[in-house]
């Protein structure tokens, strides 16, 4: 199945919804009343005359288009209380996400009309007052995230009637009182940390780690009563905590047996999850690819705890897989390892999503590699924001760079125009990329390999310095077919298997990028007829015959007084592309050499704001990580 079908299928789905039925008029009115009465800093495309179901950002309708069933508006900058009698009229609503806004006031009482509400995300707002007293009106609630607000009062007992509740996050509020002893058999995750709760951990919650109660005044002295409360068919009813206070031999034995039983149950559960997940996966991807997936099903699949976008620390994006799948998307191009898309999320953030094909390693190896890549934080390295791994889909999420890659600037994209890059720009690209590469090579005890350096993987950061992307994928992908793969022009002669790329082969590829910057030519290009020209060979031949200015990009020849610098850079580039891997310089040396070229420049030429900037080294990575 072709990669480009994943996002368009979402469109088709939306289109299908639109064709089936007219607008849900009442719900539309309610949404307009809501948005017109709540100030927000980002504009929404909620145009009264456009169809809700197919056009309005953040809104999903039921299959027949008769009702609105999901409203997701994270990070829209809503400020103030939710206007009464607006969202409360969406009586078929199943999903509501208003997270990461500045919504204040009390929990809206009229939400009690939303009887089918299953997923409620209100975290990171400024809501205050008590939690709703009667949760039992929402008997379908599955995920409740009210964390990071200013709710106070006690935890309502009525939560214990929610048989489907799987996740409850009330962390970072001002809730007080004791934690009621609930029987919530479906509960998988809870976090009550950083409130003003008192007392002890109730028996039914002793299965959760202490960290979920941290930041309260809660005692953990009940370890003797830590008998597993998980309802297991083969287990006798829980012993009364009165009895287990005295840790007699029999009690100990009981605990040991219970622990064994629990271990077995957990194991069985895992097996079950694994097996049923496998089935679900095929269905998921099949449906997704055929565009048959109903929004409800997308949601229930993506709520699978083991199957979600993994974000890295310090990432402040507020979206999840479903948001991503529903985002409007355009194809950016076909990269070495798969298609790249630009996805625009509900809150207008643009991200790049790469869909990898032919990943050759298992989940654990993949995750390990992603952890290393995600930990690299440097102003000259494009940060990996998140990744997603399932059997059928591997996605990587990066920041989007609106100016496009250095390759697009130098050579024009898909026949588009080149962007003029003067010598200063090119020096900054080279220097930035070199620093980024040096940082990457320092990773993993100085052994980390980029594996896919080329100009289409280099972008410009906010200071217009080079910034390296697509790190560390080559080792986890199936080897590329050797003959004329897209990376061929950059590949060092010794590399026969792309998975076995080493640091010297990265240096070679980087040298090719430098040659590209100097000559303005693609690493592999054709002249007139069918003759294929390799940039490295071509530069060698020109330089060998007569050391002329002919190698340099004609555009650069217009800049005055830079010939010497260009020749120096050419020498650096040629030292990187020497045939013998062990004769190539190391990345930190390359950085030094390029910096030296620049220093000559700053001393000899009248200064400009750019130049003083370029001789300042970037702050060390550790400073930026805090
Ligand atoms: C709403 O859509 C109509 C027709 O599509 C268009 O004429 C109008 O300008 C739009 N209004 C806004 C505020 O975008
Ligand atoms: C709630 O969901 C059920 C099952 O999906 C549906 O039959 C019912 O009509 C829904 N309620 C409302 C008010 O839409
Ligand atoms: C939160 O709400 C309170 C009033 O309830 C207000 O004083 C405070 O400024 C609000 N905080 C933010 C960040 O809007
Ligand atoms: C909500 O729960 C009721 C019964 O508890 C069920 O019939 C209905 O299908 C559920 N609705 C949804 C949308 O899951
Ligand atoms: C709830 O919100 C917190 C804070 O944003 C977040 O860390 C957590 O992942 C959320 N939980 C769920 C299940 O969405
Ligand atoms: C649970 O719901 C039942 C009715 O469905 C009600 O009588 C009971 O009080 C509720 N329990 C709590 C703790 O609210
Ligand atoms: C609570 O707030 C702290 C500090 O702002 C934050 O580090 C922590 O992740 C928050 N906890 C949750 C569960 O959101
Ligand atoms: C709960 O939140 C706290 C921070 O508020 C965090 O340290 C802890 O790891 C969280 N626990 C779980 C299980 O998510
Ligand atoms: C914590 O709770 C205990 C009793 O539950 C009380 O004696 C103590 O003063 C409380 N500590 C704080 C810091 O509130």
List keywords for this structure.
626 residues; alpha/beta; Leucine-rich repeat, LRR (right-handed beta-alpha superhelix); Phosphorylase Kinase, domain 1; Transferase(Phosphotransferase), domain 1; 7-stranded mixed beta sheet; 7-stranded parallel beta sheet; 17 helices; 24 strands; 33% helix; 16% strand; elongated; binds 2-acetamido-2-deoxy-beta-D-glucopyranose
Strand content: 15-25%
User: Which ligands, by name, code or SMILES, are bound?
Assistant: 2-acetamido-2-deoxy-beta-D-glucopyranose
Task: Please state the average pLDDT score.
Answer: 75
Q: CATH homologous superfamily of the largest domain?
A: Transferase(Phosphotransferase) domain 1
Distance between the termini: 42 Å
Q: Outline, from the CA principal axes?
A: elongated
Rg, Cα atoms, Å? 29 Å
InterPro entries: At_inactive_RLKs, Kinase-like_dom_sf, Leu-rich_rpt, LRR_dom_sf, LRR_N_plant-typ, Prot_kinase_dom, Protein_kinase_ATP_BS, Ser-Thr/Tyr_kinase_cat_dom
Region (Disordered): 224-243, 595-626
Main location: membrane
Biased composition (Pro residues): 616-626
Describe the structure.
Keywords: ATP-binding, Leucine-rich repeat, Membrane, Nucleotide-binding, Repeat, Signal, Transmembrane, Transmembrane helix. Residues 595-612 have a biased composition (Basic and acidic residues). There is one protein chain. The protein has a 7-stranded mixed β-sheet with strand order 1-2-4-6-8-10-12. Strands 3-5-7-9-11-13-14 form a 7-stranded parallel β-sheet, with no helix packed on it. A 6-stranded antiparallel β-sheet has the order 15-19-20-18-17-16, sandwiched between helices. The protein is of the alpha/beta class and 626 residues long. The chain contains 17 helices and 24 strands. The two termini are 42 Å apart. It has 3 domains: 37-219, Ribonuclease Inhibitor (Leucine-rich repeat, LRR (right-handed beta-alpha superhelix)), CATH 3.80.10; 281-400, Phosphorylase Kinase, domain 1 (2-Layer Sandwich), CATH 3.30.200.20; 416-626, Transferase(Phosphotransferase) domain 1 (Transferase(Phosphotransferase), domain 1), CATH 1.10.510. Bound molecules: 2-acetamido-2-deoxy-beta-D-glucopyranose (9 copies). One 2-acetamido-2-deoxy-beta-D-glucopyranose binds at residues 171-172, 191, 193-194, 209, 211-212.
